What we know:
Blueprint: E1 8-9, E2 35-44, H1 49-53, H2 57-65, E3 71-75, E4 100-105, H3 111-120, E5 124-131, E6 134-135, H4 149-153, H5 156-160, E7 170-175, E8 214-215, H6 230-239, E9 256-261, H7 272-280, E10 286-289, E11 291-292, H8 298-311, E12 315-319, E13 338-343, E14 361-364, E15 366-372, E16 376-381, H9 383-400, H10 406-415, H11 440-445, E17 452-457, H12 461-465, E18 472-475, E19 477-481, E20 486-495, E21 500-504, E22 506-512, E23 517-519, E24 525-529, E25 537-547, E26 550-561, E27 565-568, E28 573-578, E29 596-598, E30 606-616, E31 619-622, E32 637-644, E33 653-660, E34 671-679, E35 688-697, E36 703-714, E37 722-727, E38 732-737, E39 743-748, E40 754-760, H13 776-784, E41 799-810, E42 815-825, H14 828-843, E43 859-860, E44 869-873, E45 882-889, E46 893-901, E47 906-915, E48 918-925, E49 932-940, E50 943-951
Parallel strand pairs: 7-9, 7-10, 8-9, 10-12, 12-13, 13-14
Antiparallel strand pairs: 1-17, 2-4, 2-5, 3-4, 6-11, 15-16, 17-19, 18-24, 19-23, 20-22, 20-25, 21-24, 25-26, 27-28, 28-29, 30-31, 30-36, 32-33, 33-34, 34-35, 35-42, 36-41, 37-38, 38-39, 39-42, 40-41, 43-44, 44-45, 45-48, 46-47, 46-49, 49-50
Amino acid sequence: xxxxxxxVNISGICKNFAISFLLLIATxxxxxxxxxxxxxxxxxxxxDSVLKNEExxxxxxxxxxxxxxxxxxxxxxxxxxxxxYKYNSNGQKLVDLSLIHELIVDENxxxxxxxxxxxxxxxxxxxxKYYIPELFSYTPNDPLAPSQYYLNNIQAYLAWGITRxxxxxxxxxxxxxxxxxxxxxxxxxxxxxxxxxxxxxxxxDGYIDNFQGWDLGEGDNNPQYNANSHGVLVCGYAxxxxxxxxxxxxxxxxxxxxxVKIDNESGRLTMAYEGIVYAADRxxxxxNLSWGGVLGAGQFGQDIIxxxxxNRDIVVIAAAGNSNNQIPIYPAAYNNTISVAATxxxxxxxxxxxxxITIDISAPGTGGLxxxxxxxxxxxxxxxxxxxxxxxxxxxxxxxxxxxxxKQIAAQLKVTADNIYDISENNSFxxxxxxxxxxxxxxxTETDNPYIELIALEHTExxxxxxxxxxxxxxxxxFRNILSTVDNVTxxxxxxxxxxxxxxxxINLGTAPNNEIINNLENPFVIKLLNNYPPxxxxxxxxxxxxxxxxxxxxxxxxxxNIDYINIFPNTISTTVTSKGTIGYNYPNFNQGxxxxxxxxxxxxxxxxxxxxxxxxxxxxxxxxxxTEGTFNQFFKSITNAEFINDPENSHLEIRGSFNxxxxxxxxxxxxxxxxxxxxxxxxxxxxxxLEYDIINNxxxxxxxxxxxxxxxxxxxxxxxxxxxxxxxxxxxYAYSTSGGYYTGISLLSxxxxxxxxxxxxxxxxxxxISDGFTSFxxxxxxxxxxxxxxxxxxxxxxxxxxxSGPFILxxxxxxxxxxxxxxxxxxxxxxxxxxxxxxxxxxxxxxxxxxxxxxxNYVSETNSQNPYKIIINRNPFASNIxxxxxxxxxxxxxxxxxxxxxxxxVYKSNPELLNIGNYSFNVDASKWxxxxxxxxxxxxxxxxxxxxIKL
Length: 952
């Protein structure tokens, strides 16, 4: 795919068009897909800034988050380095397998919790359980059935008259092994003569004696089937030796097969996706995957498929599944695969075959004879055996069209398939069996067909995410014809979303030259989001292309509209504002959000943060932790999604929105909350956000014991060093780590008496215990109470804080306004200074004058009884090697000065000296100072004034 900065990237979107049907669970399939206990696959973010500085830095960050558990981390594919180029010749992004890691923990650990920790680190692209796919079961039929009827159906005999393939085409059979001594398979195996069986790794590829494939499941060089013979059958359909006066003929004829065994001694497919990488690195040109599962392998699985298809230009064939429904099965439903459904001798959908709009093509899959163990032959049924027939066909095409890439081979197979939708038994499956049933002869001979692919949508994901219910949007995109030039291309748009109305469904694209990009910018599809469109809901679309009425391609894509969270980067803080009263993440989705990050520090400082409101132990509403461990309440419902205010008057950034508690069920209080979030990007106001809430009582009754507060579960450094405390002078609840790191806090800006509760999450020292769930009783109790320190009572000092106020009397239709500042600082003094600045900014007690451009860089301190002097800093920030400032002393004082960097290292010190009334000038040598922030502290007796200075 071509990637453009202002386009939505289509290549990362899986073919999960029918994902909305996942809840329609049929009794014919088990959806509790197995996974390996104690194993997580995660991938580091490629673009992460820390990785640019040091390759291992991302892992170091991950390790900090996992200090509380025993673990082992290994690179999943240690022999792989980052690709030399980011894109292939077609503009498709290459996969970097070096970023994928395997995390091993105790089998009793909560993997969901650890996955949350990994996402919170800020350096992980994805983290997933390691799901084990399943074989698609086969059903032996009458051995007297026509042995290979499918060769006639797919016109293989005519195809072999044109090409019989060649031995350079390697069909990797990623399965349960093969029968190495079967007379119809022994000569079809791609033997590795560079590594004969001699006890040495003769070809230096990391595998000793991988002469005839490899057994990844049991870790040896013998891919002979063991617990399950499924792979033996698959090998026969694709690559049984032809023209040998023995048995049957594989569709691939002269093509070779590479057996890669992926099941362990118990028959579980424990190395399925690793098998794909193994085969891809050993010259496979076609790959067959006759296994899968509903849950697939997440983004890890898509990465592996992309590695094979894009990095290695392999045609990847996958069985669609035997569930007889539309639920997508992976890897077949991933992008860059050919998903194969099964038909019978009459081209009717096989009764057990999966179907749906993720299917690419159909092929015979029942009753056809194939190889069986012990030199025998029997028929089998299932999409497992339809897929290798297509794999054999792909190998023939790769031989006949050597200049075609994998994508073009797939397109040629699909565009030349025979239409089977006019068969009455298939009427109810219109459009759900792919482009039709495979016809190899047509694929080899019809070379004047186009195939249109979708490259990218016109706009960014961010653009579409802001489209809200009731709005109309144009869908324009860029397309490319990867086969023959044609002059009359039309396109039809469909969706399975019940929340979208397609206004303009069909467009004309006109001429589509080979390998050139066309677009519909002038004649877009037009859609409308219905008024009930849910927040952050993904809509799936399909575009079908036609040339003079004949099929010319089909592409699927997904867009998330009406997004209910915003990522912001207003100052030294970056975070996510949701439309439902939380900050950091769109809980419970930790992959939606930034967390809370500060300066160049790329890990989140919070696990969970958000507003809590309560009037009794049975009337508490929020969207933070739920009553049971690992859950989140979803009591708040967005009314108006969070949105940026253009050209805010009194801040550099302003966000507004509103929500209510309509989802709270029995806890519902009939409240509406309007919120405003503001931020500034200049010192001294660039280390905090102001969060203002207007709580409106629409209940029809009075609330006489209402409390509200802002909760945060902090992650500063190692949990074992967490501390929490309270600064009464600034109404500031703050957290820090004795191991170092930054300070975080929440300050109450409204003029109410504060209530501050510092939690020892595990319940130490008499704290409310919230590590096992956070009940409404515990929330309301904390809202009413004061507990001003935490983290002092045990070695595991995981802490949280809740700062609020109450009780309030809130009558019907009345509004309670309350405001907080969310702050991060380099140290406690810095945090307190930001709290003071936030209070001044909120109350309007500030000397800022945005119109006074000449004095923006000046700093003039106030003079009072405790400050009998005035300090004037002429330039702050400053860019020279001399830092200059003046003192006007009004009463005799003894003054000492220190300047430190943000790590506390001293860069300047002036010992205390007596200063009489007068004017004093100071010039400090700053030539050795690095660019950054410094703190100047002025000592006059017991009084200390701190001023932040910045060198540019």
